[in-house]
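Ticket closed. Logging final result for Transmembrane 9 superfamily member.
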Amino acid sequence: MYYDDLPIWGFLGKVDKEGKNDPSEYEYYLFKHLHFTIFYNKDRVIEITSQSDLNANVDLTEEKEVDVEFMYSVKWKETEIPFEKRMEKYSQSSSLPHHLEIHWFSIKSGVIVLLLNGFFATILMRVLKNDFVKYAHDEESAEDQEETGWKYIHGDVFRYPKYKSLLAAAVGSGTQLCTLAIFIFMLALVGVFYPYNRGALLTALVVIYALTAGIAGYTAASFFCQLEGTNWVRNLLLTGALFCGPLFLTFCFLNTVANAYSATAALPFGTIAVIFLIWALVATPLLVMGAIAGKNSKAEFQAPVQTAIYPREIPQLPWYRKTLPQMAMAGFLPFSAIYIELYYIFASVWGHRIYTLYSFLFIVFIILLIVTAVITVALTYLQLAAEDHEWWWRSFLCGGSTGLFIYGYCLYYYYARSDMSGFMQTSFFFGYMACVCYGFFLMLGSIGFRASLLFVRHIYGSIKCD
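Final structure:
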């Protein structure tokens, strides 16, 4: 509960398990008397605690309707703590020494993964340097020598991918979500999201998402036109619906479930109307303006080599070089850099913890972006070295695969760490986490794709191709 914006936690009842091995024999009791102690300083509430009267309870073991008369009592006490410091006890809870140790361990594990990626990058640069020397030597010694490796497919590597409208929309939406995440971190680091500032994070997410819609429109339309796409209006609609569509459908279903259960989690009609107006009057016009600006930017796709008329056949590759195994490899390292911090975020969003260490979280986020970019580039190089030139979608899927790992962690958290049960809690948890993980998939996918595109342009721009 909340009182004067101060959160209160307490027990609604108890389960008597003493001397009973079978869960069907457990006895369930509901507390009907709550006692509040409120500390005040002049006309300001400073602190509140809640206690349940263990003796005033109702037996709910039998599944039948019970009339319960709930009661509460309040005791007021004066305190010298000033109003400005009333939130310190909440923010300090996440800064306790044993919690800080775990957060530092999270940073250390992230740095270790970063170093591992550094080794990958160093080895990759060495291999590339040898490739450049080898190809330069081949050009000088024998012009008619057959090309091998990634140089062999230079005429196909910049062949535009299938479903380029969808790829452009996904890159645009991912870029918008990445910008959104950076703005949210900036607000968090300057202290906007205090523990008691209820709804501030959700409000900021809705408003900033609407204001950054132009970024998605511009990025998607510009990239789509670079890929010689013609139907930019369809691409615009796809960009607008790619993330908002699944989120809207999930919200409608879950809000209906909450209304059916008469839960306070259901958003009232007025709030839904305001969100709809923000989307219709702010997000949509900005998306359209961004798309028009992107279409008119007349930017050309910068391919350092010419594309052949006919595509080369991709050689038969072993199973571990297929898309799904590569996605599993690409997602594991970035996930291992963030999984410790994930527990605290989940416990804050779906539990009773209060999370205030945004600086730690921001460092972990930066590590996540760097590791995703490096691992995707490394896998793209291995793919090109195997003479597989269809790297466009592969790089996006490999970059975004961390989102699938996070959803896998959701399953673990739900069954091993949370006490959630029932259809409403289950649907809320898995429904909204699916939207969050989908957002991560798009965001990290766009990071991986952009890193791979820069890398491929660089290596083919560094060699001489006929």
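The radius of gyration is 28 Å. No further action required.
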